[in-house]
Prior knowledge:
Chain B: InterPro entries: Gtb1-like, Man6P_isomerase_rcpt-bd_dom_sf, MRH_dom, PRKCSH, PRKCSH_N. Chain B: One of its GO terms (biological process) is N-glycan processing. Chain B: Keywords: Coiled coil, Disulfide bond, Endoplasmic reticulum, Signal. The structure holds 2 protein chains of 2 kinds. Chain A has 3 domains: 40-71 and 156-211 and 225-340 and 347-378, Immunoglobulin-like; 393-730, Alpha-Beta Barrel (TIM Barrel); 733-962, Golgi alpha-mannosidase II (Immunoglobulin-like, Sandwich), CATH 2.60.40.1180. Helix content of chain A is 19%, strand content 26%. Chain A is built from 16 helices and 50 strands. In chain A, a hairpin with a 2-residue loop joins strand 26 and strand 27 (507-511). By secondary structure, chain B is of the alpha+beta class. Among the domains of chain B are: 172-227 and 388-424, no CATH class; 244-283 and 291-304 and 316-326; 345-381, no CATH class; 433-546, Cation-dependent Mannose-6-phosphate Receptor, Chain A (Distorted Sandwich). Helices cover 43% and strands 14% of the residues of chain B. Chain B contains 11 helices and 12 strands. Chain B has an 8-stranded mixed sheet with strand order 5-6-7-8-9-10-12-11, with no helix packed on it. A two-stranded antiparallel sheet of chain B has the order 1-2. In chain B, helix 3 runs antiparallel to helix 10 (390-421). Chain B is elongated, with a radius of gyration of 43 Å. The interface between A and B is large, with 86 and 67 residues.
Amino acid sequence: MRSTMGLSWKWTALFSLLSAFLCLIEPTLAVKEHDFKKCAQAGFCKRNRDYADQAAAQSSTWISPYQVVLESPSLKDGQIQAVILKTINAAGETVRLPVTISFLQSGVARVVVDEERRQNKDIEVRHGSAARKERYNEAAKWSIVGGLEPDLKAEIVHQDDSQINVKYGPEANFEAVIKLSPFGIDFRRDGASQIKFNERGLLNFEHWRAKIERPEGEENTEEDESTWWDESFGGSTDTKPLGPESVALDISFHGYEHVYGIPEHTGPLSLKQTRGGEGNYAEPYRLYNADVFEYILDSPMTLYGSIPFMQAHRKDSSVGLLWLNAADTWVDIIKTKGSSNPLSLNAEAPSSTQTHWISEAGILDIFVFLGPTPQDITKKYGELTGTTAMPQEFALGYHQCRWNYISQDDVKDVDRRFDKAQIPYDVIWLDIEYADGVRYFTFDPHSFSDPISIGKQLDSHGRKLVVIIDPHIKRVDNYPINEQLQSLDLAVHDKDGNIYEGDCWPGLSNWIDCFNPKAREWWKTLHKYENFNGTMENTFIWNDMNEPSVFHGPETTMPKDNLHYDNWEHRDVHNLNGMTYHHSTFEALKSRKKGEYRRPFVLTRAFFSGSQRFGAMWTGDNLADWGHLQTSITMLINQGISGFPFSGADVAGFFGDPESELITRWYQTAAFYPFFRAHAHIDTRRREPYLLGDPYSAIATAALRLRYSLLPSWYTTFFYANRDGSPILRPMFWTHPSSEGGLAIDDQFFLGSTGLLVKPIAEKDKYSTDIWIPDDETYYEYTTYNLVKTQQGKHVTFDAPIDRIPILMRGGHIISRRDIPRRSSTLMRFDPYTLVISVSKSGEAEGELYVDDGDSYEYQDGQYIYRKFSLKDDVISSADAEGRDTRKIKPGKWLKAMRDVHVDKIIIVGAPASWNREEVQVESEGRTWSAKVNYQAANGDRAAFATVSHIRARVGENWSIKLA
Amino acid sequence: MQHPKTLALLGAVCSLTVAAAGSVPRGVGPEFISHYQNKEVFACIANPSITISPDRVNDNTCDCPDGSDEPGTAACAFIDPRSPEQPLIGSPSGTTNATRSLPGFWCNNKGHIGGYIPFTFVNDGICDYDVCCDGSDENGSVNGVKCENRCAAMGKEYRRLAEERKKSVAKANIKKREMIKEAAELRQRAEARIAALEKDVKDLEAKKEDLQRKYAQVQNEEAGKIVKSKGGRGGKLGILLGLAKDRVEELREALRLVTEDREIMRSKKNELEAILMQFKQDHDPNSNDEGVKAAIKSFEDWAAREASADQSEFLESDVNEILKEDDETNGVNWKAFEEQQDDTDILYDFDAYIPPFIRDVLHDKIRIVRQWLISNGMMADPATDGSESSVVKAAREAAETAEQELGHKTRELDQERSDIQKDYGPSDIFRALQGKCAEIDAGEYTYELCWLDKTLQKSKKGHAHSNMGNYERTEIAIADEEERVDGRSLGSGPRMVMRYENGQTCWNGPQRRTDVWLGCAEKEEIWRVSEAEKCVYKLEVGTPVACEDEDVKKPDEKDEL
Lengths: 964, 561
């Protein structure tokens, strides 16, 4: 009796202990949702949603109280200036809102609305705050870098008491119909409405008002003031010295069922509806850069970065919208079926998407893009906000990171083991533990006593070191950097004007204010080699926590009433903060040494429209599970069409210990991430690819080597992204805008214009997948050259055992590879090229190769090779893609070295039997020699292919090969 | 302009690659020379049906599906089991995922030691001097990089270091032999102790049996003697009973108070625990507030310890049983004791019926007899014991002492025996290290290795020490570490690893464990400590134990035979 009782007592105890520990563990497995606001908890969001509900309830009797008064009703220099009068009460009192509508040469239209009284600083700021009286109007200063040339040909083609019609656009086929009362704009292309402002009357410009102090118990009977003034959330109070000041507008996309963009979220590429209902979200998409711990999937919740750029698409037509506002922003989306549209007489009318944009503060500043192709939208967005910086070439290789490699011996050992296993990698990373007590710009004297020795070992194989530098500066004595930050007054201030103190990795910290030009200059000095001891030419920087992340701060960030440079409230600039910091580091890396003019590499977590100009981003602290692997693909595709394609997700998930199969599939997927970095939390087990064991290490190695072999194509794709903002991972709607079945597909993509169609496996125990085929072209399997039996719109089944990635080659492309496996991308720079030609149905193919020194800006002086390869009429040829006479370019050191680099092998997949011969003649710059051909006839599913080898054609010169 | 340059280049390539008859092409290792020498045509090693002219060997174009035509370039490096797969007609798998015939690029390294480097390292612009001191891995085709021959200097330095190392190893081996000797002595001593103990045990067993026999005899003799205790009702036993009963009540009351106190403390503890759990849950896990971090860590350690600590043997149910009032079914049945009438009571009763004068005489006589009995040891002295005579007591105590002594010796013997069977490594050598510890400073901790005992992480900041594992066993594992000039490296090859396991439990993780890798050194020293992942430690330790020397030929085997 006694013993069994004892036993049961012990079991009970064990269970209760276990359950106690489970309680401890469980909450860490999911995001702390209650730490972040829902719309109803953000006063301005709730007010505007309520306003929308009110409008919907009153339906036909709802009248938007905004009217345009034309004081100088002319179109001058592509601009119309007017004033919108907002009627604010029954007595008919109005508030003046100056509006500027600009028509740009690119065909983009811009609408800016401000508040006159605040422009004139004719208001009072509560609580004695030093905050500026104007509405924040500098987002464009940070985001917009070009594309603002006015369309001088824009003209008013019609004007009456109710509306003004302006024709504009490169082909004068765009039209803006400005409705005067109530205010609204109908943007048309070729006479058809595409985008409408204020169609539903949800324009809401919360004008400044004085707070009327009422006696206790007496309330405003006309309006609900409860969320106008001080607001509390999660234990902190926002003093809101300017009261309610939100701006909101409804924007409808007529006939568009799909809208994409507004990263960063975890939902599908084709955005969901947000006002409830089966399969929809109940919350708006939110854009408020935040350090969200263990974020959840399929959610409109905000994440680390935001790009308020939306693209709408239907078969054969794309339009877009940039809502340039850096404050806390929410976007509601509803979709209407054509027949339910009361304005439409056509029962067959297509679906439409209605959006409702709500920002907490600032001016209204909206750019409208009328397409009509996805390429037009991307290009014009790139002209405005800038395109992807030409990257350091190494940055396209593989990055090995971990929180943390714990010592210099550890780093060197990992480096050595990669070589031992013959796995290529380019960069090893140091997370926060390298810095002495998380004092950035120092190295821990015990574990990293000789960081230069790391740099040198890495450099001996062309590798790089990336160290983390975050914007929080440890508030501690005897730390000169904090002393300077304080004494030079370069930090963010709190609402009372004192230097703001908060908590982050180092404990008590202050934050650099990169809106301050002096802070940016100071930041440069810190990065100089002589000041940041332990760094050298192959050291680059990682900027994390720049949302900014503030532990214990409201929503893990700064109070909104904090003050930045020039007394702008944090509320106004929050979403820009990360970009200004990223930008500052980018500039700092360009000025580390006098005379050194090299491309920086800086990774950021927070971002905004324009961040693409400064480096790469990653999707933050994901989880090592299959769902996160799948979602990463969609998130990176969305980054690409939102102008910031240099993106990656932590391989194989930041939190947790992934199983071998998941790690392997993750490497196979990430071989196609534009930014390919493995990273892991400090509590996880080591999982460097050489540790995976058989067969996983070999499979991961093959995936890595695939990435490296395709680097010439990757670099060319980045060149395109730099040139015209085009995405790197291209979704079906972008490459095939006319193929309706592909408009919502977000788990497969083309890599640039290589014609490589990839659909990674992101499910456990899944060994085949169905790839959707967007056109009637020929497709081959990349690894086997098997001919795929298919046609447009068909799903083809692809067998994908654990060692195979589903990749198809679309007929008609020529891709460039380097097939010799090397230790790093640097060591491949002078290896010969292999071209792979997939012959199209018409027997032709085309492809381009861009290459430069991958490091400097000398490409701006013509020091690059840019070839166009083509197969036509049985001849393969190479010509300068821009028609330059390359012989007239004075070669620098790199270009000279490239004279010995050849195209040495060409594999032609789908080669007709007429090319079955022993050898062919290569002709180049007046000389002719022969190259060997090995022809393999079709065999079973495998297409016929010919391998031309020993070609020895200089990659930078014109050459041709006649195949028959 | 370009034409002559190209010709010059091609010429350079030719001179570097193709062999005149009789010479060996670049990169061919000694065991493959026959395939390349004096051949009209070159036949691919694994596919001899494929032949090419010798001038296509090392022409930087991969012609053989086994890669054998490019022993001196990287042109066939894409044929590899870890390659991204592409069709390759003629290879065993029909794809590029295949094994090449050649192990790598052979660096002859005249003046030093020859070796293979991977083909992927050839012509990549890097001089891989660690294997290829002759610099033959770069032929100038990549960005003009050529590597000077450093074999003379490197070979010399290598030989110098090898000599130094050899001397050091020799010294270490002297030390090792001393240790083996010491270990053998220690073993002999232990064996001697065992022998002595075995004898002691044997003697004690005999003694114990003898005394037990005597005790039994005395007990027998004493049995049947009628004794009357002094005192009131029930005599001494009765008083004892009363006292015991009171005392039990007193103790029960005290226990009740303690239990109540404990309940209060327990609920306070639970409350605090709940507060800390909430604190842990709610604190920002990204926070790096030193105070918060330390508090959370201490809490986690505490929680982990709580989880792994043995539960008290003192069971709740026991306490409850004790706290209940005594009655017939629970605890001591006092009533039964109180009501029981023993033999002396009968005597008393008889006493009451005889006349007083006879009674007095009788009592006198009895007293005299009793005194005589006591003085002769036939009856227990009531002053010393309530029920046992001094004779019985002495016999019993003697037997018990002998038994205790025997138990003690037996345990000692068992310990010695298990110790002698314990794995002390080859030649019992770790015996020489038993009880010794070594330390190393690393960052904010000092790490301590106690041989065959445990490993410890000692905080310099005053946090609690953590046990990183207790010695379990020694195994052989394959080391793969960089050789170091100072010799303080495990190098590559099979090495002894001492596994220390089941250390203090990590929060949210496994129990700490340590692998102690042994490398050859002149004295015991911890070279470095690393924690590649949380709570899994690796100590690289130098000790003469790990040395191998020509002079000490497989001592472990010799010993075991």
